[in-house]
TrEMBL record:
Residues 43-384 form the Aminotransferase class I/classII large domain. It comes from the Bacteria. Belongs to the class-II pyridoxal-phosphate-dependent aminotransferase family. NCBIfam families: gly_Cac_T_rel, PRK06939.1. Pfam families: Aminotran_1_2 (PF00155). It comes from Priestia koreensis. Its cofactor is pyridoxal 5'-phosphate. One of its GO terms (molecular function) is transferase activity. This is 2-amino-3-ketobutyrate CoA ligase. InterPro entries: Aminotrans_II_pyridoxalP_BS (IPR001917), Aminotransferase_I/II_large (IPR004839), AON_synthase_class-II (IPR050087), AONS_Archaea/Firmicutes (IPR010962), PyrdxlP-dep_Trfase (IPR015424), PyrdxlP-dep_Trfase_major (IPR015421), PyrdxlP-dep_Trfase_small (IPR015422). The keyword Iron-sulfur does not apply. Keywords: Ligase, Pyridoxal phosphate, Transferase.
Length: 396
């Protein structure tokens, strides 16, 4: 018999969410998450995946995964610090360091886990963290877990960051102060002002932490936002995920060797949770090798992103101020945004709506993620649907 208090809690809260239209219904994808997807038997043009380079279905990664699975089996067998560190995990970490131009790297089970692990391994209740107000949920949770004082600064507002850095470092209240930012902001596609952030960090001796989940594989010839600005030796923590452009699963920190040594003995998900499967590690190594030897996929990604952006803008949609392939179509009102996404779906385009609380109230949007795997024909078809639904709903 289930607890009455739990039952009451679940019924009340689920009903409230459903009543407000905020209960997210999940549609399982029947098959690969490629440039098209099949949901409930219907094949749609997919503009919602983070599979930027199409590597999730690349035969080279699939072969690497199969070979490693044959050799090592499907699971690592133990946590990293017992005997679950397979040589393929070490190879992945060496490859990541090479990819990010750092002394060393440490791999985690996901990007989310990585932020929970890395922030709390270094920061504690005697410290402060300056965090961009639009940083990802995993950064927010990582900061909370650390118990450091989190001070939010206005999005990419360098005057605000500078003033808060000055105040925090001169207050005498904190042992260490860190500045944390996404490299590319996931809901708007704008790039963090890293040269200014690094300059402020140097002025006030801040620890620098950049989560480049959406920049790696996309900017800096694939190496990411930090490399894009030529700041590889100026950022203490370079965080990334292996689930977006790399196409697989996992997360990592790249940085100086002593930092990585510390994370290996003090970050709890490394110590107490089993690593990614050998097959996943092998696929990631293959993906990074591809990224380090060719820019073909990035060139295709940017061509497709430019094409879609120009097309949507020409039709009259508000695509915000994106500087990367992430292309929002800002609709505004929440229910209208959801209706727009639903109509796109009915017409053959899968582009998910993103509304409050993920983005501020009144800035609901449909977020488009063009990839290297889309063809021009697919993008043209999507634009035709956008035009039809946009006109029908009075958005353009
Ligand atoms: N950080 C940022 C900035 C992200 O956008 C995401 C992905 N939603 C993550 C971390 C989490 O990455 P993962 O899906 O690998 O856990």
């Amino acid at each position: 018999m289930s607890s009455h208090t739990l039952q009451k809690f679940l019924t009340e809260n689920l009903e409230e969410l459903k009543g407000k239209g905020l209960y997210n219904v999940i549609d399982p994808v029947e098959g690969a998450n490629g440039p098209t997807i099949t949901i409930a038997g219907r094949t749609l043009i997919n503009l919602s995946s983070n599979n930027y380079l199409g590597l999730a279905t690349d035969s080279r990664l699939i072969n690497a995964c199969n070979e490693a699975t044959k050799k090592y089996g499907v699971g690592a067998g133990a946590v990293r610090t017992i005997n679950g560190t397979l040589d393929i995990h070490v190879k992945l970490e060496e490859k990541l360091a090479e990819f990010k131009h750092t002394e060393a790297a440490i791999a985690y089970q996901s990007g989310f886990n990585c932020n929970m692990a890395a922030i709390s391994a270094v920061m504690d209740k005697h410290d402060a963290i300056l965090s961009d107000e639009l940083n990802h949920a995993s950064i927010i949770d990582g900061c909370r877990l650390s118990k450091a004082k989190t001070i939010r600064y206005n999005h990419s507002d360098m005057e605000d960051l500078r003033a808060k850095a000055k105040e925090a470092t001169s207050s005498g209240l904190y042992n260490k102060v860190m500045v944390i930012t996404d490299g590319v902001f996931s809901m708007d596609g704008d790039i963090a002002k890293l040269p200014e952030i690094v300059a402020i960090a140097e002025e006030f001796d801040l620890i620098t932490y950049v989560d480049d989940a959406h920049g790696s594989g996309v900017l800096g010839n694939g190496a990411g936002t930090v490399k894009h600005f030529g700041l590889s030796d100026k950022v203490d923590f370079q965080i990334g995920t292996l689930s977006k452009a790399i196409g697989v699963v996992g997360g990592y920190v790249a940085g100086r060797k002593d930092l990585i040594d510390w994370l290996k003995v003090r970050s709890r998900p490394f110590l107490f949770s089993t690593a990614v499967t050998p097959g996943a590690a092998a696929s990631c190594i293959e993906a990074i090798t591809i990224l380090m030897t060719s820019t073909e996929l990035q060139t295709k990604l940017w061509e497709n992103a430019d094409y879609l952006k120009k097309g949507l803008k020409k039709l009259g949609f508000d695509i915000g101020h994106s500087e990367t392939p992430i292309t929002p179509c800002i609709i505004g009102e929440e229910t209208k945004t959801q209706e727009f996404s639903k109509r796109l779906n009915e017409e053959g385009v899968y582009a998910k709506s993103i509304v409050f609380p993920t983005v501020p109230q009144g800035t609901g949007r449909v977020r488009n993620m063009p990839t290297a795997a889309h063809t021009k024909e697919m993008l043209d078809e999507a634009l035709t649907v956008y035009e039809k639904v946009g006109k029908e709903m009075g958005i353009i």
